[in-house]
From TrEMBL:
CDD domains in UniProt: ABC_Metallic_Cations (cd03235)
Protein name as annotated: Metal ABC transporter ATP-binding protein
SMART domains: AAA
Pfam families, A to Z: ABC_tran
Family statement: Belongs to the ABC transporter superfamily.
ABC transporter domain ranges (all copies): 5-244
Gene3D superfamilies (UniProt xref): P-loop containing nucleotide triphosphate hydrolases
Superkingdom of origin organism: Bacteria
GO MF, any single term: ATP binding
Keywords: ATP-binding, Nucleotide-binding, Transport
Length: 254
């Protein structure tokens, strides 16, 4: 059998700031084709972990390899599509159309001086088709709804043809219908386009059906290969320090 190099290989990560342990002894691998959700309480270290995977934050100790390379030696960042937290909260007068924003994803791949080639145009168009925003291409991004902006930001990440999409709470400010549509699109990208997906969410109920693995992060990580089993009320209560039974009932009242 051919040996597969993981996209991310994380070993014994620790992050301590001013004597406070933010992340402790985190190890995992992420392989191509996976669809992984990260959940955990506010301040549990989820965003910090993602920022470390992207080289934006240095761990106190431990090692991260991307596509087999040490993080410092890794140069092909276009292979990693990232939509940060609150990426959709743009000013309503922001002077760019949907197409301009998606094009920025190509510039990230080829450099600002390279100009826009025919291939770039095709990739931009393709990303807009995949995220179902072609009809919005000439609209100013600031005039769009939260759900539409969310799809624009993901199309921008897709335009560089990434191997993995990393999304940090992409549903902030997005209504329920758009969220549902969004999860359907994500699942499609994973299944049909074979794009690996890693995302942070608080929507544990909504995602349970599709995802392959679930990481829970609360200083330490629990890696769960059977998300449905993990999402028992007891374990969610334990992770969040709240009564998940109460939440569950509350959800069904509406
Ligand atoms: N560079 C840093 N310096 C000081 N504290 C930091 C630094 N990076 C992260 N932290 C702290 O680490 C903790 C974890 O933050 P993080 O944003 O990763 O949590 P989170 O799980 O993503 O939370 P949320 O769900 O609210 O987004 C917070 O208390 C944060 O203030």
């Amino acid at each position: 059998m051919k040996f597969k190099v993981p996209i991310f290989d994380v070993k014994k990560l620790n992050f301590i700031v001013r004597g406070q342990t933010i992340l402790q002894d985190i190890s995992f691998e992420i392989f191509e084709g996976e669809y992984i959700a990260i959940i955990g309480p506010n301040g549990g270290g989820k965003t910090t972990l993602i920022r470390m995977l992207l080289g934006l934050e240095q761990p106190t100790s431990g090692e991260i390899r991307i596509f087999g390379k040490k993080l410092k030696e890794f140069k092909e960042w276009y292979k990693i599509g990232y939509v940060p937290q609150r990426a959709t909260l743009v000013d309503e007068n922001f002077p760019a159309t949907v197409e301009d924003i998606v094009k920025m994803g190509r510039i990230a791949k080829r450099g600002i001086l390279a100009g826009i080639s025919r291939e770039d145009k095709e990739m931009v168009e393709d990303a807009m088709i995949k995220m179902d925003i072609l009809n919005l291409r000439d609209k100013m991004v600031g005039t769009l709804s939260g759900g539409q902006r969310q799809r624009v930001m993901i199309a921008r990440a897709l335009a560089s043809c990434p191997k993995i999409l990393i999304l940090d709470e992409p549903n902030t400010g997005v209504d329920m219908v758009s969220q549902q549509r969004f999860y359907t699109l994500l699942a499609k990208l994973n299944k049909e386009e074979k794009i690996t997906i890693l995302f942070i969410t608080h929507d544990i109920g909504v995602i349970a059906d599709d995802i392959g693995r679930l990481f829970t992060i609360n200083q330490k990580a629990t890696i769960c290969n059977d998300p449905k089993k993990m999402l028992s009320c007891e374990e969610v209560s334990d992770l969040y320090g709240i009564d998940a039974h109460a939440l569950h009932h509350h959800k069904h009242e509406h």
